[in-house]
Amino acid sequence: MKTAKIDLHLHLDGSLNVYWMYEMSKKRGVIKNEMTFEEYYQQIYCTAYKTMEEAFKMFDRPIDVMQHKEDIAQTVFDLVRELNDKGMIYAEIRFAPQQHMKCGLTQYEVVEAAVSGLNRAKEAYPLMAAQLICCMMHKGENALVNMKENFETIEVTKEFLGKGVCALDLAGYENNGDFKLYAPLFEKAREYGIPYTIHAGEMGMGVHVVEAIEMGASRIGHGVNCVQNPEWLNEVVKAQIPLEVCVTSNCGKERNYALHPIRELLNAGVKVTVNTDNMMFSRTDLHVEHAMLRSIGVSEEQLKQCTLNAVDAAFCDEETKKKLRERLMQEWN
Q: Whole-prediction pTM value?
């Protein structure tokens, strides 16, 4: 458990406290007051979906209760508190500002609220370092559908960069349209000096991972489908680009950890980091992830290396990375 300390791929909307969601859903009129917690819980953890696209709609439930400034700030504060209670030392929490505008907030106001929650958490839990990543979104059949909103996310990220926000991401349901249509977004990010990670090769084609590398990503969200083709896998190894691997989240309803390609990635020499993705929806945390990886033969030394990979790949300054390494070494020794 000492190795489970750093999470680089953690979605805010997928990691809320489910009872808080239930109470807030009643307060905000999202569900009827007569719905019991047991009924709500069963809906949240329903697995009777037919497609991944259908499963992604489950994120509408937490997003529906993250439409007011105070609620957004509280979710960030609560998640940092939970991570601190679990003995974590660093996390990058990601969310898509454009998803939280149903009640009239602007993207700027959404990020402002999230940063306020983060700042409050930093004061309360000074040993738990955390930053925010703003996500652009896959929407529709190709990148052009959502280009305006995504460019706005870049502008807002620029405003808050270094003030609680550390990077950009591209998230959502990964379509199989022309992935390189997203390139103008990342050109603008580079112009502004904003680092970025890209969700690629999770549910979409593995070649997206190679294309994300070509678009200048510093890290890849998931990226596991690069194993579909030896040439794609070789490109990932050659680039030594960190993959934000989230095993439980990608194991599906069957939770067959042995079928996940993480061991293949490690054996090939990929720079793997281990993450949770969605703590609430996947009913996991980083300790669970590491425990399950041990159960399928991933060694303690490999887990330590994955944690050190996460330090190297983190969107934080070198002084912070130095402190993180020192804290890890103190525990390991």
A: 0.96
